[in-house]
Amino acid sequence: MTFTVSASGRLDSQFAMTQRKTYLTEISAKAACSKAARTKLVESRAKLNSVRAAIRQATSTGRLRPSEQLNRALGAMEVNFAAAETQLRVLQKSGEDDWENARVELDGAWENLARSIALLVARLSDESHD
Predict the structure, then answer these.
(1) 3 state DSSP class of 50
(2) How far apart are CA 103 and CA 33, in angstroms?
(3) Which pLDDT belongs to residue 4?
(4) Residue 121 — very low, low, confident or very high, per pLDDT cuts 50/70/90?
């Protein structure tokens, strides 16, 4: 085992220093992941709000007829957004041992949200051409 003398004159093992660097790297990666996810969540919320506004406007002007399929697609997008929001909170509260599992779950939630958005856009396209 290698020992070094710190500025305070203490002996620190190389192992302890390596462990600390690993821990700080994991915390930094978790923080970066959390920050990126928060940004993505804010952007997704803005898109969701604009889609809702576009649906309201198109419905009020008669360019789009309300339908059960459209309502289901919008509801699925809302549910998937809420799931992504929940998974972000789980990630933020996770510890150093389980944050990567939480990240995998968050990635799955993002994929579900992206799919529901694509389905809603497809439904909007179908409804507006009918």
Answers:
(1) helix
(2) 8
(3) 47
(4) confident
If 0-12 CB within 10 Å is exposed, 13-18 middle and 19+ buried, where does residue 59 land?
Answer: middle
Domains of the chain: 10-129 (1.20.120)
Q: Is 65 exposed, middle or buried (0-12, 13-18, 19+ CB in 10 A)?
A: exposed
Helix (H, G, I), strand (E, B), or coil: what is residue 27? helix
Is residue 97 a contact partner of residue 37, using CB atoms and an 8 Å limit?
no
Burial of residue 73, with CB atoms counted within 10 A of its CB: 0-12 exposed, 13-18 middle, 19 or more buried: buried
Asked whether the predicted pLDDT for residue 19 surpasses 90, the reply is no
Longest dimension (CA), the chain: 79
- Distance between CA atoms of 54 and 76, rounded to whole angstroms? 17
Say what the pTM is.
Answer: 0.72
pLDDT score of 42:
92
List the single range of 1-15, 50-64, 104-118 with lowest mean pLDDT. Answer: 1-15
